[in-house]
Amino acid sequence: MADLRPFGASPESGARERAQLILVAGFVIAVVLIALALVMNSAIYTENLATRSDSSGATDAVVYQRAVESAALEAFEYAHAVDGGDHASLEANVTDAIAGLDAVSTQQEARRGHVPNVSVAGTVHGTAIIDESDDFASEEDDANWTVAGGISAVRAFNVFVDGRSDLRERGDDEFRIVANDTANADRWHLNVTKNTSTNEIVVGVAAGGSFETCRHNDDTAWVNVTAGTVAGEPCDALTFAEGVSGSYDLEYRNGTAVRGHYSMVVDDGPGRVYSSPDSGDPRTEDALYRMTVDLVYRTADLDYRAKIRIEPGDHDG
Amino acid sequence: MDDRLRRPAVRVGSRGQSTTLDYTLSLAIATLLVAGLVTAASGLVDDSREQVVRTELEVIGEHLASDLVAADRLAQSSHSTETLTMTRPLPARVAGSEYTIRTESAGSVQWINLTASGPGVTVSVRAETAASIADTGIDGGTVTITYDPAADELEVSS
User: Is this prediction's ipTM beyond 0.85?
Assistant: First the structure.
């Protein structure tokens, strides 16, 4: 190793001649090392930053939103299942249920410093139309009739078709469900027929000038008209009232050409007409078509407000 | 006779060599060594700093992208989101230098470009959201993500 005594100095000369170059170099390297330490500090901070997870509460908000949606849907369905009263009674039932949900969830979320709020913003009145009498004819036994006139929305429209009798071949006075908007000359229809050679129940849909079918190889079938399924299987062709934008009449054609039962909930638009506005065949009951829930979720870094629409069985939901 | 033949004793270390040359050579070699050492050390610091800035920009970009995706998921989860504002405290400087955040849409793909002015490092992070992201440019620091329900658009602001 090199001798570190000052340049040109003899061992006898003592420490009077200082090594400026070494000193300056040492100082510069010290500064460089400090800079390196600061950079390494930034690197450690970066690693620390990388391990931080979501702190804004956005994930909690999504979870809360889903929980509220699910609970509100259950409250809505429960109210219809147990209440059976008029619109005011149904509204009171769902409003109470949502207020209860709000009280419980506020307490739970407050532990994490989050502030949620949920309340019923409004409801749309509707009417449930149900026929369990094994035919699709009107109260006066008309085969061609209007189930509900002047409506703009239908949800939870389920039809059970029994193909063991009456169900016709296609074109032979087949049973049809028609959404007829006479003001705008828009028309959508669905027919249910039977292919006797293959023993299939055939659901045909005519929308926008095209006609497509879905088949089910059994004697009976549930057709969920608004959900677009036949016997539980998705039917791509089946989109309820496709191409009908205004208010329309919901009609049955050749209602005597099919056996089974049906149920639906229609909205109470202005000028709606029911063929059978009583407890006859079919019977009608007060129902809520839709409930809108206001949701607020706040954390230190998040402010979220949304409206949740509860509309079970809606075709566009 | 014996006295004439006796030669004076020669001191070791001062044979045929000038003091000036000795001094100059020592100084030159030492300067060369020290300069090399300082250059190498400062190069190491510069390299490390650039690497740290790049890593930190990547981390910040990923955080911002994940926030945008989380905000998007929340905005899309209900039928009608009315207000959505999310604040994220991000560092104002990376390894001592300021940086800028630019959001950019290239077709259906959104990019977040982060540029640090000091070492001139740019990092791009991809964010896939259902809502579009408004093209903006802001300085680094605490950012606010806002959702515009009318335009179905997310905006990043400072």
Answer: no
Q: Return the beta strands (E) in B8-108 as ranges.
A: 80-88, 93-94, 97-106
pLDDT tens-digit readout, B48-60: 888 889 999 999 9
Number of domains in chain A: 2
Contact across the interface for A22 and B66, Cβ inside 8 Å: no
Report whether A151 contacts A270 (CB < 8 A). no
pLDDT band with cut points at 50, 70 and 90 for residue A1: very low
Which residues of chain A make contact with B56, given a CB cutoff of 8 A? 42, 45-46, 49
> Per CB distance under 8 Å, which residues of A are interface residues toward B?
7-8, 21-22, 25, 28-29, 32-33, 35-36, 38-40, 42-43, 45-46, 49-50, 52, 54, 56, 58-59, 61-62, 65-66, 69, 295, 301-309, 317
Residue B19, both tokens: 């003091």
pTM of the entire structure?
A: 0.77
- How many Å lie between the alpha carbon of A292 and the closest alpha carbon of chain B? 10
The chain-wide mean pLDDT, for chain B, equals 84
The whole domain housing A93 covers: 58-122+291-310
Q: What's the pLDDT tens digit per position in A262-307?
A: 888 888 766 666 666 666 678 888 889 899 999 999 998 899 999 9
The answer to the question of residue A15 being in a domain is no
A214-243: per-residue pLDDT in tens?
888 888 888 888 888 888 888 888 888 888
Whether A108 and A202 share a structural domain: no
Determine the residue of chain A that is closest to B94 in CA distance. A42
Place of tokens 């408004």: B134
**CA-to-CA dists, residue B71 to A42, A185, B89, angstroms:** 28, 43, 15
Report the distance separating Cα A299 and Cα A115, nearest Å: 6
* CA distance to partner chain B, nearest, from residue A312 (Å): 14
CATH number at A192 reads 2.60.120
- B30, B45, B55 ranked by CB distance to A43: nearest: B55
A304 shares a domain with A177: no
Residue A128 lies in a domain: no
For residue A62, which residues of chain B lie inside 8 Å, CB to CB? Answer: 70, 73-74, 77
Q: Does the residue A195 lie in any domain?
A: yes
By the 8 A CB rule, do A265 and A284 touch?
A: no
Report d(CA A112, CA A109) in Å as an integer: 6
| A42 within a domain of the structure (yes/no) | no
